[in-house]
UniProtKB/TrEMBL annotation:
Stored InterPro entries: IPExxxVDY_fam (IPR047690)
Organism listed in the record: Jejuia spongiicola
Protein name stated in the entry: IPExxxVDY family protein
Source species, domain of life: Bacteria
Length: 162
């Protein structure tokens, strides 16, 4: 009996993209404006946010498709804070107090301290990573930014935005 071996290396090829982690405390729309200004791109807010965990966590996303370079730029928030109200326990009190809990969810749980991720999708090898990183670090409102090795991420499926 002959043994047949299927090689599917071409079918399940990894998507080539660069991932940059950004630490800053400014709002998402302000960061998108500053990146547009300093990098010469045109990020715009998508009509619908990224929705994970069945409406428990929602992350803002900005996107721009560069047709000349065949590149897609995506800026996604990494932190989602939700407020939950605990059910009241009947107490013998004149006033009722509701206890509120703020829960924090992360798009990429391995990087809890990162505020935003800039994902640059490109089918070809992307050689401008050092230039982009230095341009981002020149923005005064950004504390720090660095490249992330995507192959080391456990939750890289969360980076599929379409």
């Amino acid at each position: 009996m002959a043994v047949h071996k299927l090689v599917l290396d071409d079918v399940f090829e990894e998507a080539l993209y660069t991932l940059i982690a950004i630490h800053c405390t400014i709002e998402d729309y302000r960061l998108a404006y500053l990146l547009n200004k300093h990098l010469g791109i045109n990020l715009t807010r998508k009509p619908s946010d990224l929705d994970y965990n069945k409406d428990k966590s929602v992350y803002s996303i900005f996107e721009w498709e560069d047709n000349k370079q065949l590149t897609t730029w995506s800026l996604a928030s990494n932190i989602c804070k939700t407020q939950e109200i605990l059910p009241q326990v009947s107490q013998q009190s004149l006033f009722t107090a509701q206890e509120q809990i703020i829960k924090t969810f992360n798009l990429i749980p391995e990087y809890k301290g990162v505020n935003y991720f800039l994902k640059i999708d490109n089918d070809n090898s992307f050689s401008k990573e050092a230039y982009i990183l230095s341009s981002i670090l020149n923005i005064p409102q950004i504390v720090t930014a660095y490249s992330v090795d995507v192959n080391q991420l456990k939750s890289k499926d969360n980076l599929i935005f379409s």
